[in-house]
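question for whoever is on the cluster today: can someone run the full assembly for these? two chains, 418 residues total. i dont have access anymore since they changed the login thing
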Amino acid sequence: MKYSDDDLMAYVDGELDAESAAAIAAALALDAALADRVARQRELRRAVHAAFEPVLAEPMPQRLLASARGTPAAPVRARRWSGFEWGAMTASLALGAVLGAVFLHQAQDLVPGTGPAADWVADETGLRARGALALALTQQLAATQAPDAPVKVGSSFVATTGEYCRSFTFAPTAATAHLGGLACRRSGAWRLLAVAEADRPGGAPEQYRQAGAPVPAPVLRAIEDRIQGNALDADAERAARQRGWER
Amino acid sequence: MTPAEQQFRAELVSLLPRLRRFGRALTGQRQDADDLVQTAIERALTRREQWEAGTRLSSWLFRIVQNAWIDEVRARGRRDRVLAPEEAGEHVGVSTTDAQIDALAVRKAMARLNDDQRIAVSLVLVEGLPYKEAAAVLDIPIGTLTSRLARAREQLQALLADFGRSKETGR
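^ ran it for u. tokens below:
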């Protein structure tokens, strides 16, 4: 069978149905010229993607952040959260509904090192996981994690931007709601792309509360916006951990 | 600020790196790309009500960026847009590994595509959107998108082969 350049382009872009893709994959083994054409298409796709990939890791210009957040462009004086205990991040949830989006919005005001260890820290490119959260994201596998782990990893996947991402939830405490988020591996660190509170536990039937931490809707949306293909299965997750979550 | 607006702004912030990358692919220039993203942020915030919750915010924002870019191109006329990218920038004089030469060549080749082709490549190859979604962002049929993509790829292959030859002959 002859394949047009359009067929091969769609194949390389992952746009063919499973049957057509399988037919091309089988033909590649038998036809060196075809394999060469596919390799050239693949290499072009890789090179174009790679040429712009470094932009993601660049520091975010303050003016863009300020516009998007609706804060003044001038540096904001650091706010001291001295009135609160930061011993565990979940303790801060006693604040109630102020977290989630609001927390992301205010994260710029948190100065690293002003409080005891928190689970994330703001830097020039946004929020970076550290402490127990960073450890869980790097070490824990969804299949084998302890049922009572303070941080639970949800699904892991490859993002359309090419990096590994993992969703996570914090165990709720008596006084606090579930908190969940999405972190992606960039430049050797876990970047938090979304953090939000789930619906108040009081609103959910008892059995759902017991079943484990629900993923907040904004985090689900953030996952849907980024996921490429399906979530990793247990083997793929383990393999990704072995590679240090670098692709 | 309402909770809905805070949520919207938080998601916007999390998508900024991708918007900048998309802008860079369209314009080839850091400053132009960031100006473009700035314009897009302002438009997105003004038109927040028009975004339908449940649809992809990223796609909606890509559409705003690309419309802002088309406006910009029209306003400037075609004489001085998309020059060779970042040649005075960070990639000159630093270590010239193969990967970097590769990236610079790709960006130069991208700058030579026509706008329609460059936009298609930016959405599908740079941002990784499925055809269906990229076509929806541009409000064109999938067939139109794929034919732009195919022509763009032929052009890029030819340009990159050309750059490769001139490098070998030392031109």
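summary bc i know u wont read the tokens: Chain A has two domains: 5-55, 64-242. The longest helix of chain A spans residues 32-52.
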